[in-house]
Amino acid sequence: MKRNQRLRWVVGSGAVIVLLVAVALGALVRRGGDDGTLERVRASGQLRVGLDASFPPFESLDAAGSVVGLDADLARAIATTLGAEPVFVNVGFDGLYDALLVGRVDAIISGLPYDSRRTQDVIYSDSYFNAGQLLLVRADDVSPAGSESLSGRKVAVEWGSLADMEARRLKQGADGMETLPQPTAQEALSALVNGQADAAIADAVSVYQFVGEDRGQVRIVETLTDEPYVIATRSRSRRLAEAIDEALIELRESGALDMLLAKWF
Length: 265
Description:
Blueprint lengths: L6 E5 L2 E6 L2 H12 L3 H8 L1 E6 L8 E2 L5 E2 L1 H12 L3 E6 L5 H6 L5 E7 L8 E3 L4 E2 L2 E6 L15 E5 L3 H10 L6 E5 L2 H9 L5 E5 H11 L3 E6 L4 E7 L3 H17 L1 H9 L1
Parallel strand pairs: 3-6, 3-7, 11-12, 11-13
Antiparallel strand pairs: 1-2, 4-5, 7-15, 8-15, 9-15, 10-13, 10-14
């Protein structure tokens, strides 16, 4: 935050402004307000990226032990705009924020949901993926679709999941709606394809994986909830956070982000 201050010297019986140091003090405060991570990344040519490489297709380890996935490719693209290369630091998901806050990594890029409780400690980027719950029907279903048209219909969900919770909420306003609980999201989507259900609710990650394999047998009719995946930096790494957002905008506007999504889903 920029703060302008005036320094007064008292001469004789009155106070006289001798020196205005707003520029100098402003620069000093700015240096205190940013931890210099962006400058260090550019000087070293390394962007240290924290991730949990156990969440395909976002991140996992290949046969050679290299990190691969959507987030790995996204990290490479962002690092390139900063004039750097990503250095992946594989950390258990529960330890990612700690690794960031103690300076072990510069940013978290790991299928990370936005968490309003963390905004005192970290800066979140714009969302690059919405992992919320989606409502689907079969591709050949020409009946009215949407959450307002579920009365009398059977909806497949993964039992005990957020999709199940969303279905229970929708059921309150849809007379005769039934749920068809399944062991997994993939099985819920298969139940829809096989005609056991009229619709299905599942998270976007499961849906896009399924859609990539089902050869167009289902279609998405509504986004029911939002769960944005974001990149996190320390609250004092403001210049790095701004640079990451600028890189995301560039990737989105150029179509490169859509190409990454298509590649991994």
